[in-house]
């Protein structure tokens, strides 16, 4: 996760936040409550991995705790595994013909299996 303190104007803030989000990183942007407004460079950026909060000295510790907990909840988990050449060929074919990433196909297959698996749903 990445934490920005954005109380002072910074022309690169929007770019840096967008880049971090593009890489899948949760982002916390904090600005002092007495500045009164969300940093201008963040307007138009919409993501469940982006948190923008105002703070003061009194609220900062609890705000950080809550923001970090949320960022951990929305973080993706990296999972590497080995597959056979035939499975790899199929995923390549899906990617090329259906124009969707192989990872998306794998995620959807797992999600469908989770929905079907009564034992998992009941746990």
Radius of gyration: 20 Å
Task: Name the CATH architecture of the largest domain.
Answer: 3-Layer(aba) Sandwich
Order of secondary-structure elements? EHEEHHHH
Give the total of beta strands.
Answer: 3
In helices, the fraction of residues equals 40-55%
**Treating each run of at least 4 consecutive H or I residues as one helix, how many helices?**
5
Look at the structure and give the mean pLDDT.
89
Cα-to-Cα separation, first versus last residue: 30 Å
Overall number of structural domains: 2
Q: Which CATH top level class of the largest domain fits?
A: Alpha Beta
| Beta-strand fraction estimate | 5-15%
Low-confidence stretches: none
Secondary-structure content class: alpha/beta
Strand line-up of the largest beta sheet:
1-2-3
Overall geometry: elongated
User: What do we call the CATH topology of the largest domain?
Assistant: Rossmann fold
Would you summarize the structure shown here?
With 123 residues, the protein is an alpha/beta fold. The protein has five helices and three strands.
How would you describe this protein?
With 123 residues, the chain is an alpha/beta fold. The chain folds into two domains: 72 residues, 3-Layer(aba) Sandwich (Rossmann fold), CATH 3.40.50.450; 37 residues. The protein is built from five helices and three strands; from the N terminus they run βαββαααα. The chain has a three-stranded parallel sheet with strand order 1-2-3, sandwiched between helices. The radius of gyration is 20 Å and the shape is elongated.
């Amino acid at each position: 996760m990445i934490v920005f303190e954005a109380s002072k104007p910074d022309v690169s803030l929007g770019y840096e936040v967008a880049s971090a989000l593009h890489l899948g990183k949760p982002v916390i942007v904090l600005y002092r409550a007495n500045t009164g407004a969300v940093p201008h460079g963040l307007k138009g950026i919409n993501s469940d991995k982006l948190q923008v909060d105002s703070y003061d000295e009194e609220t900062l510790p609890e705000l950080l705790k809550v923001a970090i907990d949320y960022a951990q909840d929305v973080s993706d988990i990296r999972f590497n595994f080995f597959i056979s050449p035939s499975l790899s060929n199929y995923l390549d074919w899906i990617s090329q013909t259906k124009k969707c990433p192989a990872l998306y196909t794998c995620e959807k297959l797992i999600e469908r299996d989770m929905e079907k698996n009564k034992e998992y749903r009941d746990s």
